[in-house]
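Lab meeting, item 3. Inverse folding demo.
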């Protein structure tokens, strides 16, 4: 990486700027980016899903959140300074180290909102300037090609709304808040996929086509892509424009007639809008977060398929660990093998996280073949994985006892379970936000002097992004949690160098007859009873766990009785034992 930094610094100097900002994201601001846009990993070695760097003549600084504190240090070299957000921030660093300097950025890679926040924080003390070309691209000779998959129809059976119904709902919301707007820029590929009832294969884990589009007030969706890429879906109401010339598509609209979402719209596109664009959250964001009845049914179906794969996998792992070493990469391979038995499986919903022993304490650890380790015995193994299915998306974390766990591990696991149950059992009124639910979830951990650095829960797309806004359950989320949302419930605890614990189910937010909201579990997979100190659970918590395991057995055991695999009888026996009531 030292040679790459030297080459980048030469480009920075040639461009006449004092430094350059390198985000992890692409032009679509997605969490997952194609290989052609992994610029941050290319220059720093850091492979996490969130991060941003600043490189100057004598300094290289990487920022990411608490999930990646350890991973940043592990993957980068000594020439990099690694800082954790939000305790440290790019804006504060620039004010302290780059006052009076000119810092360049790629206008295609910086969303409007991010640029505006940086400019406000800089208050003129640091100059931010868009560059004519990306300096990392100039030193990347073997840059991978861009993906060009074809759009795939997404069945109305799963979607529950037609394309026209979705377009009408979007236009109604736009007109209600901004009656003069004639068009909206769609800069989120997941939002476009939702609107069109289409999916794609441009990314390894997120089934979308990477394309921008414009929704006009008359209901026309103009896609900035080669029409051939959308030849397999219904073309009614669609138009196409040159993806290399988005300005030509936007030129027909006057000042104040185009809406952009500053959280995802690139600064480069904002500059192509006549006069001033209207800044507002895309109505698609809120609409796709509230799942239809058909989507919730698809989630339920996908989780039953996924549960069968997980039970087979957990049975295999329990059987294999005492017999021979199991490497972390092998865990990922076996999960894909078991999930692939379903014809409805498309891909993992993210790169599997499997950390044995101390690696489990690295929140988003990625095992790499040849650099991974065998799962150590008398320890814990944290496995966070998920699947993209034809109808919906899954995401599950289970922490497994490998051999005989210590009393410290069992104590911590039981308190993480108490936190998980606190959210699973919670009833709350309309308007409750993510901060409030986050505190309710963490309370049992805080009582034991424990905590974790990541959020408690994130939104999940329906055969879309495994991490979906606008709502989340975290210390910073002021967005109200609404009926119809699908979120994760994933408290944890991490002992650096020792072990990691996380218990994650997906939940659908439902409304009861009194109008109160509650979480309905979507995940049907046992929680490792070997790691539970029953005396630390109160009666309600024990009742919840026993009822959960009873439902897991009732729903999944019949599916295993189909005996697709020769080992399914043994997996069924494992499931029955794993779902016994607590002693």
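The presenter then showed the designed sequence:
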């Amino acid at each position: 990486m030292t040679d790459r930094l030297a080459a980048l610094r030469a480009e920075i100097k040639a461009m006449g700027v004092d430094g350059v900002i390198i985000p992890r994201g692409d032009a679509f601001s997605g969490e997952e980016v194609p290989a052609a846009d992994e610029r941050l990993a290319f220059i720093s070695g850091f492979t996490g899903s969130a991060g941003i760097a600043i490189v100057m003549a004598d300094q290289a600084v990487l920022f990411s959140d608490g999930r990646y504190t350890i991973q940043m240090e592990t993957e980068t070299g000594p020439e990099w300074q690694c800082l954790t957000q939000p305790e440290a921030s790019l804006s504060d660093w620039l004010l302290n180290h780059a006052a009076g300097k000119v810092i360049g950025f790629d206008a295609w890679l910086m969303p409007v909102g991010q640029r505006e926040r940086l400019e406000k924080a800089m208050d003129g003390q640091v100059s931010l300037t868009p560059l004519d070309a990306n300096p990392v691209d100039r030193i990347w000779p073997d840059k991978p090609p861009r993906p060009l998959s074809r759009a795939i129809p997404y069945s109305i059976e799963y979607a529950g709304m037609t394309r026209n119904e979705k377009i009408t709902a979007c236009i109604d919301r736009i007109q209600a808040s901004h009656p003069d707007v004639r068009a909206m820029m769609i800069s989120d590929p997941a939002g476009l996929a939702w609107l069109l009832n289409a999916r794609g294969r441009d990314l390894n884990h997120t089934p979308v086509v990477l394309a921008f589009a414009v929704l006009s007030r008359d209901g026309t969706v103009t896609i900035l892509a080669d029409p051939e890429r959308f030849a397999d879906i219904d073309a009614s109401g669609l138009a196409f424009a040159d993806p290399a010339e988005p300005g030509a598509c936007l030129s027909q609209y006057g000042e104040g007639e185009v809406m952009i979402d500053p959280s995802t719209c690139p600064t480069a596109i904002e500059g192509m809008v006549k006069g001033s664009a209207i800044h507002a959250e895309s109505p698609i964001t809120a609409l796709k977060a509230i799942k239809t009845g058909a989507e919730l049914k698809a989630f339920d179906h996908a989780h039953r398929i996924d549960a069968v794969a997980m039970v087979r996998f957990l049975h295999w792992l329990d059987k294999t660990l005492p017999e021979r070493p199991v490497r972390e990469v092998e865990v990922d391979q076996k999960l894909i093998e078991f999930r692939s038995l379903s014809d409805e499986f498309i891909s993992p919903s993210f790169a599997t996280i499997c950390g044995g022993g101390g690696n489990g304490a690295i929140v988003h650890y990625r095992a790499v073949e040849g650099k991974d380790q065998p799962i150590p015995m008398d320890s814990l193994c944290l496995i966070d994985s998920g699947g993209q299915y034809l109808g919906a998306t899954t995401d599950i974390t289970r922490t497994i006892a490998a051999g005989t766990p210590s009393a410290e591990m069992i104590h911590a696991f039981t308190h993480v379970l108490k936190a998980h149950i606190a959210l699973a059992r919670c009833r709350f009124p309309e308007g409750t936000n993510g901060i409030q639910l986050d505190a309710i979830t963490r309370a049992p951990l805080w009582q034991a002097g424990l905590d974790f650095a990541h959020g408690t829960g994130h939104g999940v797309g329906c055969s879309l992004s495994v991490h979906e806004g606008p709502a989340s359950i975290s210390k910073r989320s002021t967005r109200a949690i609404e009926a119809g949302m699908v979120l994760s419930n994933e408290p944890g605890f991490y002992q650096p160098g020792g072990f990691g614990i996380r218990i994650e189910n997906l939940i659908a937010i439902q409304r009861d007859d009194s109008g109160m909201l509650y979480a309905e579990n979507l995940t049907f997979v046992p929680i490792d009873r070997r790691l539970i100190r029953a005396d630390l659970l109160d009666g309600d918590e024990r009742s919840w766990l026993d009822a959960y395991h009873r439902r897991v057995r009732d729903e999944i055991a019949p599916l295993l009785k189909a005996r697709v695999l020769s080992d399914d009888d043994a997996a069924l026996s494992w499931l029955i034992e794993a779902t016994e009531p607590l002693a």
